[in-house]
Amino acid sequence: MAEQEKEAMLPPKESFSEWYNDLLQVAEIMDVRYPVKGSYVWYPFGFSIRRNVYGIIRELLDKDHQETMFPLLIPENEFMKEAEHIKGFEDEVYWVLNGGTTPLDVKLALRPTSETAIYPMYRLWVRSHADLPLKLYQIVNTFRYETKHTRPLIRLREITSFKEAHTVHATWDDAAAQVDEAIRLYSEFYRRLAVPVLPSKRPNWDKFPGADYTIAVDALMPDGKTLQVGTAHHLGDNFAKTFDIKYEDAEGEQVYAHQTCYGVSERSIAALISIHGDDKGLIMPPEVAPVQAVIIPILFKKSEAVLAACNDVKEKLEAAGIRVTIDDSDKRPGSKYYKWEMKGVPLRIEIGPRDLEKEAAMLARRDTGEKEQVPLASIVNEVIERFAVIQFSLLEKAKEELGARIFECETLDDVRENVAKGIAHVPWCGEEKCGLEMDEQVGAGILGIPTDQDETGTYKCPVCGKDTSIRVYVARTY
Amino acid sequence: MAEQEKEAMLPPKESFSEWYNDLLQVAEIMDVRYPVKGSYVWYPFGFSIRRNVYGIIRELLDKDHQETMFPLLIPENEFMKEAEHIKGFEDEVYWVLNGGTTPLDVKLALRPTSETAIYPMYRLWVRSHADLPLKLYQIVNTFRYETKHTRPLIRLREITSFKEAHTVHATWDDAAAQVDEAIRLYSEFYRRLAVPVLPSKRPNWDKFPGADYTIAVDALMPDGKTLQVGTAHHLGDNFAKTFDIKYEDAEGEQVYAHQTCYGVSERSIAALISIHGDDKGLIMPPEVAPVQAVIIPILFKKSEAVLAACNDVKEKLEAAGIRVTIDDSDKRPGSKYYKWEMKGVPLRIEIGPRDLEKEAAMLARRDTGEKEQVPLASIVNEVIERFAVIQFSLLEKAKEELGARIFECETLDDVRENVAKGIAHVPWCGEEKCGLEMDEQVGAGILGIPTDQDETGTYKCPVCGKDTSIRVYVARTY
User: Fold this and answer.
1) Of A59, A79, A125, B396, most Cβ neighbours within 10 A?
2) What's residue A4's pLDDT?
3) Can you spell out the DSSP letters for A274-305?
4) Which of A233, A259, A57, A33 lies closest to A162 in space, CA to CA?
5) What is the mean pLDDT of residues B78-98?
6) CB A270 within 8 A of CB A153
7) In chain A, positions 4-63, which contact chain B (CB-CB < 8 Å)?
8) Is residue B344 pLDDT above 80, yes or no?
9) How far is CA B434 from CA A428, B226, B478, in A?
10) Considering CB atoms only, which of A90, A108, A131 is closest to B2?
11) In the predicted model, what is the mean pLDDT of residues A354-363?
């Protein structure tokens, strides 16, 4: 698409918000010019990232979940059944009122999330303890009438890529174990995107409407705000009671089931591109890069030998399952570098006459800029090895950056100073009053209690001064 | 899901409508009990068929199309731009009028199809002849407020799986060639589902609203009605003019682009299961079968040797990329046969002590019921060869059945008699008046002019008696 071919300069990544918006357009992830607020268009390049990212989710879930698909439209009476749930969503729901020119008999909600679409069916599907656990997921579009400032991939009115899993278990403990398992799955998912995440249990006032509790994973964005990139909810038997989901236990008794649900969305892609990218554009981990390697023939004059060598390398890499392309366009090399760096291609392979004399190629890493000459004879192994190194080093770099921006704080002043830069780790007595007061005082709320909390120490709540063994994350959030 | 484990009897396939409805439920394709008319739930098993079927579509399109995703919600002003298009859809559009409890400023349509969502963006994306052809597709949910009788997979209010491609070309002829290419792609797609289809050019009164012309592919259902399972539309420069999609040609002139769009939906799965299935349930072509082979250990008493042999075969087949499962449950063999036949598993592999003595296994074909003993040593090749034979013979059988139900007709009486059984192939003068009259007289409409029409003969229009070289398909349709 011609207009993107100009060499637009990105703002520096330090100006994160401008950098992010421009990057989405220039690297062709999302087009923000669609004429409905909060709805955006996936460019084909962006969508190919989505394919790879969601391929990983499917791979992880398919081990013991099954994929399915439920309708978008939820009748008002089903939607209105669970009181807490409604309270959480009623201001955000889009309502379909007309079919053609006729008003509908029953108002239809566009799902903001699918509990109330799925659980009436679970009522029919769950019969016996032998049916449990039931673990299904779907990847669908969901809708929230957001009144806050919308932002592509992050705060949307149409979430195009909501992966939601809904599980049913015999006991409360089984469901709790599944919530832990969900967080383990999400941590693994993000590890494969080279994105380190922090799991924490949300404070009660911030849990999912209708849940017993919520554990979430957050990523730290370059501007020091956290982005919630996955949540897992223990629903207890709350929805089971509302939707009458019972099973016959081993003794022949009818018992309410226990449930969980957990979701990730295209926010995973927002984190992926924000955390790794730089002033030159995207930096893609090899596993999810639409193009993993680009071959650039260095042609002082038209050289058949160079082009033949490039094609030979391309064939070998393709045979090894690597997503590779040759850029043999007439553009000058600098212009080609610009383009493929913007798209985050992990490795650039340059082959010129002087390389050929040495039966070698030049590899340039996108993440570090390092260049290295390698023998053509072993090119496939050289490339595969470097992919592993890049994947590893992106994750290590991101972990270091995250670690350097978690600050141990004891007082509200400490917190105030540090949440501007990242995450404060601070004592909390556990009282909602103190939690909300902290939020008010420092302009940043309690994210949650880290799931790997060591509760053997004794600290003082910076608001009320009471002794506590709990320390929480406090951060500015998206 | 327990309730489906009972051995429900299907009605005979002769009673097609009842058979179809029951099969969807008993074989766990779609659950029809969702509380919104025309919206159905994909069972996980049904969804795994969808995955395989849509995997083929993606494979075919990815050769020279790119996948993308556009928003569901279309603002009223964009939707209302193309006059013919509106006329075709206005009675069928769902309108979102409220966000939360607030009426929206601009009414939002749920896309019935995405021309009016995509083309405002194409206006921005298409700049130069170098951008053309542009070939994008998406797989999304679309909505039609159907007032006719709804039916799972066939006539839906939420089409969950609409694959729509939208292409832009420099000239009318380029777009015409793309329409032909789309029909070629669809024919190939259906060949892989072992479903023979008939391509024909729709009469003018039945073309896509806003198109120059429409070519469709139809499958013949067991009850003799045709099911439109794919359409390709030449849009000329009609939408380009409405949405101002222009490109700069080689001479530097701004010229309107030419466009096509083409779609298939989950009707592909309706055809797949209807055409191949029998009184015992589904018959899946191996390529799209969620389970391609099931191994049944024949155990007179607990035999470690038999189970070991079954596991060994399973491992070998899996290593060859075959989707295989062992049914070593405690159910009696008859009950296992029932279950896997219902699910359409192409090959059943039975291994018992007597087979083991001969170092052999018994293969049973789902499509013909034929059983054959084969050596364990070459089991992988035996299975792969049979898959090819089954795939081929399902297609041949379907072709024969289709061929036997296309009837050469010369008079309206001929047509009337034969459209009860299938498709009439009958002369037509080309006048709309005669076409509609024929419809009225025989209770079946003109499907279209076969694209492989040989126009060298001379026939008489059965309505007006005029000479014509055209023969058309006439059929009862879904």
Assistant:
1) A79
2) 46
3) HHH-BTTB----GGG-SSSEEEEE--SS--HH
4) A57
5) 89
6) yes
7) 31, 33-36, 39-44, 47-48, 50-51
8) yes
9) 83, 21, 22
10) A131
11) 95
Give all strands (DSSP E) within B345-455, no chain letters. Answer: 347-351, 360-365, 371-375, 406-408, 423-427, 445-450
Nearest to A126 by CA among B395, B298, B66, B4: B4
Q: Which of B241, B211, B272, B269 is nearest to B89 (CA)?
A: B211
Q: How confident is the model at residue B4 (pLDDT cuts 50, 70, 90)?
A: very low
The single-letter DSSP state of residue A265 is -
- What's the whole-number mean pLDDT along residues A354-373? 96
**Topology adopted by domain A286-392:** Rossmann fold (3.40.50)
Which residue in the set A3, A33, A75 is minimally distant from B36, CB to CB? A75
SS3 content of chain B, % helix, strand, coil (to 5): 40, 30, 35
Contact B69 A48 (CB under 8 A): no
B2-276 maps to which CATH number? 3.30.930.10
Structure tokens at A157: 């009115």
CA distances from A230 to A19, A159, A183, A243, B31 (A): 24, 14, 8, 25, 29
Q: Measure in Å the smallest separation between the Cα of B106 and chain A Cα atoms.
A: 9
Chain A nearest-CA distance from B379, in A, is: 27
Chain B residue with the nearest C-alpha to that of A156: B71
Residue of A277, A398, A369, A291 lying closest to A10 (CA atoms): A277
Confidence of residue B2 (pLDDT cuts 50, 70, 90): very low
- pLDDT above 70 coverage of chain A, percent: 99
Alpha helices per DSSP H over B90-171? 115-125
Say yes or no: ipTM exceeds 0.90.
yes
pLDDT beyond 90 at A161: yes
Instruction: Compare CB distances from A127 to B3, B36, B100 and report the shortest one's residue.
Output: B3
Of the residues A73, A86, A118, the best mutation for testing chain B's interface (the one with the most B CB atoms within 10 Å of its CB) is A73
List the domain boundaries for chain A: 2-276, 286-392, 406-475
Q: What is the pLDDT of residues A180-192, one digit of tens each?
A: 999 999 999 999 9
Q: What pLDDT was estimated at residue B87?
A: 85
Provide, rounded to the nearest whole percent, the portion of chain A with pLDDT above 90. Answer: 92
3-state helix, strand, coil in chain A (%, to 5): 40, 30, 35
- Report pLDDT digits (tens) over B187-217: 999 999 999 999 999 999 999 999 999 999 9
Annotation: CATH topology of B286-401: Rossmann fold (3.40.50)
Give the H or E element holding residue A142: strand A134-143
Alpha-carbon gap: A73 to the closest alpha carbon of chain B (Å): 8
pLDDT at B7: 74
Protein fold of A406-475: Translation Initiation Factor IF3 (3.30.110)
Chain B hits for A31, CB-CB cut-off 8 Å, are: 121, 124
The alpha-carbon gap from A133 to the nearest alpha carbon of chain B, in Å, equals 11
What is the distance between the alpha carbons of residues B20 and B281, in angstroms, rounded to a whole number? Answer: 9
Q: Choosing among A5, A25, A28, A36, which should be mutated to test the B contact, i.e. which has the most B CBs within 10 A?
A: A36
CB contacts of A156 in chain B (<8 Å) are none
Helix (H, G, I), strand (E, B) or coil at B111: coil
Q: A35 and B120: CB-CB below 8 Å? A: yes
- Work out the mean pLDDT of chain B and round it to a whole number: 95
CB A196, CB A398: distance < 8 Å: yes
Q: Is B100 on the interface with A (CB under 8 A)?
A: yes
What pLDDT is stored for residue A85 in this prediction?
A: 81
Closest C-alpha among B231, B206, B209 to residue B218? B231
pLDDT for B3: 42
Going by pLDDT thresholds of 50, 70 and 90, the confidence category of residue B66 is: very high
Whether residue B329 lies within 8 A of chain A, CB to CB, comes out as: no
* Average pLDDT of the segment spanning A133-139: 98
Among A32, A33, A41, A162, the residue to mutate for chain B (most B Cβ within 10 A) = A41
